[in-house]
């Protein structure tokens, strides 16, 4: 997921899809890239579980997949508490160090 979101074009696609489902051609227009390039970016986003595409007739429609974002949020939440504890301990150590320096 982070690889998929690491690319600015893919982030722009996700941002545009946050407004609602769009066809591949509508996604390509503001990005000023070829349809082939948009499809390649969409494949990466779809493989990561962030986007779902569906072909109806000749039109391929894309939308965000909330399940992928839920998994991403869970991963971040799982790590947030660990980092908050580590930062709290660091803050405590720095505060102790400041207090020790003031005493000397």
Write the layout of secondary structure elements.
Elements: H1 2-5, H2 8-17, E1 22-23, H3 24-31, H4 35-47, E2 51-56, E3 59-64, H5 66-103
Antiparallel strand pairs: 1-3, 2-3
Task: From the structure above, extract its key features.
Arc Repressor Mutant, subunit A; alpha+beta; 5 helices; 104 residues
Give the end-to-end Cα distance, rounded to a whole number of Å: 50 Å
- CATH architecture designation of the domain at 2-64: Orthogonal Bundle
User: How much of the sequence is in beta strands?
Assistant: 5-15%
Helix percentage: over 70%
Using only C-alpha atoms, the radius of gyration works out to 21 Å
Structural class based on helices, strands and sheet pairing = alpha+beta
Which series of helices and strands comes N to C? Answer: HHEHHEEH
Instruction: Look at the structure and give the CATH class of the domain at 2-64.
Output: Mainly Alpha
Stretches with pLDDT under 50, minimum 5 residues: none
Mean pLDDT: 89
Question: CATH homologous superfamily of the domain at 2-64, by name?
Answer: Winged helix-like DNA-binding domain superfamily/Winged helix DNA-binding domain
What's the main sheet like? 3 strands, antiparallel
User: What's the β-strand tally?
Assistant: 3
The tally of helices reads 5
Note the overall shape.
elongated
Strand arrangement, major sheet: 1-3-2
Quick recap of the structure?
The protein contains 5 helices and 3 strands.
Structural commentary:
The structure is a single chain. By secondary structure, this protein is of the alpha+beta class. The chain has a domain at 2-64: Arc Repressor Mutant, subunit A, CATH 1.10.10. It is 70% helix and 13% strand. It has five helices and three strands. The chain has helices spanning 2-5, 8-17, 24-31, 35-47, 66-103, and strands at residues 22-23, 51-56, 59-64. A three-stranded antiparallel β-sheet has the order 1-3-2. A hairpin with a 2-residue loop joins strand 2 (51-56) and strand 3 (59-64). Helix 3 crosses helix 4. The radius of gyration is 21 Å and the shape is elongated. The mean pLDDT is 89.
């Amino acid at each position: 997921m982070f690889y998929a979101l690491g690319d600015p074009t893919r982030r722009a696609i996700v941002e545009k899809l946050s407004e609602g489902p769009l066809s591949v051609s509508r996604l390509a227009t503001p990005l000023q890239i070829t349809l082939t390039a948009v499809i390649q970016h969409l494949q990466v986003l779809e493989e990561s579980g962030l986007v779902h595409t569906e072909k109806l007739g000749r039109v391929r429609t894309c939308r965000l997949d909330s399940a992928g974002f839920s998994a991403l949020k869970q991963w971040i939440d799982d790590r947030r508490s660990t980092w908050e504890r580590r930062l709290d301990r660091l803050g405590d150590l720095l505060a102790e160090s400041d207090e020790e320096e003031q005493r000397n």
